[in-house]
Amino acid sequence: MGLLTGLGIVAAFLVALARVRAPLVAWTAVAAAGVALADFAGLVSPGGAAVLWALFLLVAVPFNIPPLRRALISNPLLARTRRVLPPMSQTEREAIDAGTVWWEAELFRGNPDWSQLLGARAPELTEEERSFIEGPVEELCGMLDDWQITHELNDLPPEVWEFMKRHRFFGMIIPRSHDGLGFSALAHSSVVMKLASRSVSGAVTVMVPNSLGPAELLMHYGTDAQKDYYLPRLARGEEVPCFALTGPWAGSDAGSIPDHGVVCMGRHQGREVLGFRVTWEKRYITLGPVATVLGLAFKAYDPDRLLGGDEDLGITCALIPTNTPGVNIGRRHYPLDSAFQNGPNSGEDVFVPMDWVIGGEANVGKGWRMLVESLSAGRGISLPALGAGSGKLAARITGAYARVRQQFRLPIGRFEGVEEALARIGGLAYMMDAARVLTTAAIDSGEKPAVATAIVKYHLTEAMRQVVNDAMDVHGGRGICLGPANYLGRVYQTVPISITVEGANILTRSMIIFGQGAMRCHPYLVREIAAAGDPDRSAGAREFDRALFGHMGYTLTNAARALVYGLSRGRLAPSPVAGPTAKYYRRLARMSAAYAFLADLALLFLGGALKRREMLSGRFADGLSFMYLCSASLKRFEDYRRPEADLPLLEWACKYCLYQVQGALDEILRNFPARTLGQLLRVVVFPLGRRFRYPNDALAHRVASLLLEPSETRDRLTAGIFITEDPSQPTGRVEYALRKVLAAEAVERELRKRTVIQPPCLDYDAWLADLVTQQVITREEADLLREARDATRAAIDVDDFPPRRKARAATDKAA
Ligand SMILES: Cc1cc2nc3c(=O)[nH]c(=O)nc-3n(C[C@H](O)[C@H](O)[C@H](O)COP(=O)(O)OP(=O)(O)OC[C@H]3O[C@@H](n4cnc5c(N)ncnc54)[C@H](O)[C@@H]3O)c2cc1C
What we know:
By secondary structure, this protein is α+β, with helices and mostly antiparallel strands. The strands form 2 sheets. Strands 1, 2, 3, 4, 5, 6 and 7 form a 7-stranded mixed sheet that branches. A two-stranded antiparallel sheet has the order 8-9. It is flat. Bound molecules: flavin-adenine dinucleotide (FAD). Flavin-adenine dinucleotide binds next to strand 1, strand 3, helix 20 and helix 21.
């Protein structure tokens, strides 16, 4: 046996050990066997063997003798960690601790256990939830006239408010025991999604009382008396809630609100009681102008120690009836021409009795934790539903429009340029809905998956921006001219709202997803940090040592896995399924290992400084996010029992996501803090280069074609939005035209084949009459062509107005 063969065998053993995460003793045994082989088989000279044995002992002895290992390796590293560890504020710690980790942690850790993803049952609505969506929600959609709402009334009509309250739309999350509907997160998301496809203003109005706000906070943290009083009233719509956290001085950094309440005695209902004198100024508060109960976050202080503890008590949440003296509420903002109620409010020295604090005195100072915990689940429901609804609407209507709208004597959807946009719309809509359903199912299973919800909040609203932009481009002037016939313009206008609220997107991408992801998903990081901060220094040192060596094994394993999977182009990675989708599982497993390895190295090199390297952190966020979105798409395909006709959509989504993961890792390596190390790491991450490609033109063509005509795939893709063929409705007009155009397609094709062309100066009806007279076509065929023409005209029409369009009321002056 030659030296190279010997080395090859040892290397193969070491890689195999790394892949299976063998214990340290197995590593030591294999390394010893390798050196012995080299020595006794004469593969190296006696001098070389001595050097090998010396190297072996130098590494093996300290690693295998814990006291020595601690003295030589882990204690110096612990001292360094203690020095570089950035101080963590209480606020940051609570944000990091909030919620749970779930499937995204599997992807983060480099060895996803697919059974966790595929083992979960396909999420389904209950019979009751389904009939609510097919009944009252469908009826409400029929009542929502978005032009009337956004332009004429700048509000929902009174009968719509009344209908929403009567059918308990504001109590979807409130349990039945308190008169609510007690719906699952999936049902809540499905209701919002359907409403959003009809009127974003209507959807937001329903969304807010059901997301992060008084009801959610009361259910988890309220006293029994508060729950019994408020929850039924909120469910029945007798109280309209809002929740006020942010203000002029604290938006994204909401933990720094200057609003304050000082503990004092005050008069309430004729008695002297303990409470707070609260002063605040808030803005952008949804439903604020019409709220009857104001959820308020403020910082509590107790300078006179009336509560017997610290002076600075922390953020506290209270429910304040809006008719309380001193509450200023009622003016409104105009968020990009949307009509949902939103406005500022303030108060000065308003007395808030302790009973109004959510959860009472026991919860004073616990407000931030309550809010971030609620946000951990809540941000995965409402805005992703809005995004998915817009994606479905764009896919359904843009496809139909691109089929009925002709230019250069062809449907515009047949031009490759438009196909490219349609493919993006179709592929992204598939991915968005898959992620929406997967995440709400996790919430329904009891998880509060903090990182996954941040991923879907960010990516589904960003994908919404992309699909709505594409839809606008394909619609041309038809999307631009506002009026009752326009079903896209208002959606386009509201995109930045979704981007900004519940964690503005730039911040969510660059600070939250990876920042929180690394802390929550990494199997050793939190243990190491906790050990470094342990006031019992010797217990801390022992725990740090254990965590550190577990961590090293984890890093080596991921490196080996990434290399082996990379060299085999993913073929050696496991797949839980066979068939055409298996390769995507393998590629994802490969990217997951590479990601975990790279994330570890970045954490090692940058430590706490990674927090400030937001560009790097943002790319790590993208890598993790697109793995999550890809896996959600694969899960959806399985949940629908692998419909072959949907494969183009799935393939587009998977290829797109994998391409994005690859791009994120590539950019991380290019910008790695130590450049040379970045180049070396590239060998492990991309040993054969970057192999994933953006979905190609042939696939784009297949996806685009799916949007251009009715099919089960198109119905599955857009299921759950408001769909009508009623030509008196804005979207119904386009759906109706699609049916008519397709019905006339064969006749039209035949005329084109025979080059029968409408003469320039003859109107369409007269030309058809001529063709019937000349027996070129039958009367029935002429009817088909006429109906298609008329329906198309209605579908492509836009509104016009008198030259002096009514100005807004003169009384409507800004303050
Ligand atoms: C229509 C609407 C409805 C709303 N409803 C409510 C409500 O009901 N209740 C409520 O309390 N609040 C509400 N808000 C407020 C919303 O939560 C804030 O707008 C949001 O937190 C962002 O704050 P800001 O607008 O002040 O932007 P800023 O905080 O000034 O942020 C501006 C930009 O800077 C970025 N940024 C900030 N810090 C960082 C960072 N460290 N790293 C990277 N990027 C960063 C942000 O991502 C954003 O892009 C609403 C806002 C709007 C517009």
